[in-house]
Amino acid sequence: MDRQEAMSEGLELMDKAKICMLGTNGEDGHPNIKAMMNLKHEGLKKIWFSTNTSSRRVQQLKKDNRACVYYVDEQSIKGLMLVGTIELLQDIESRKMLWLGDAEKYYPKGVEDPDYTVLGFTAERGNYYHGLKNIDFEIE
Known about the structure:
This protein has 140 residues and is an alpha+beta fold. Helices cover 21% and strands 46% of the residues. Strands 1, 2, 3, 4, 5, 6, 7 and 8 form an 8-stranded antiparallel beta sheet that branches. The protein is globular and about 50 Å long.
């Protein structure tokens, strides 16, 4: 499998996944992993998540915005890891982009709830795993 094939299969994995794992760096420097709903992405480069502004994750990202996202298909034993940075987004366009109809149970003040934050992940590089092979690639 070549680099382009790995990237294509990785994108398919992203399209199918309902959940992915977000890794950030904790206050003590140790990795912290959290399952996140796979809400929106544009290719391999940009991924968006939503979370509570008051969450531990947001506090960690204010101090260190380096992160990784991992997608897995446990049936076929395929995995995609993307490494990059996260920007904390509070603008109304980003908030509306990810707003789901039932989100008010988490954010009772609606789309403008101050406890509603969008995480904008930008990937710099990736690694695709399948069939005991790892393929690294840069993302432009």
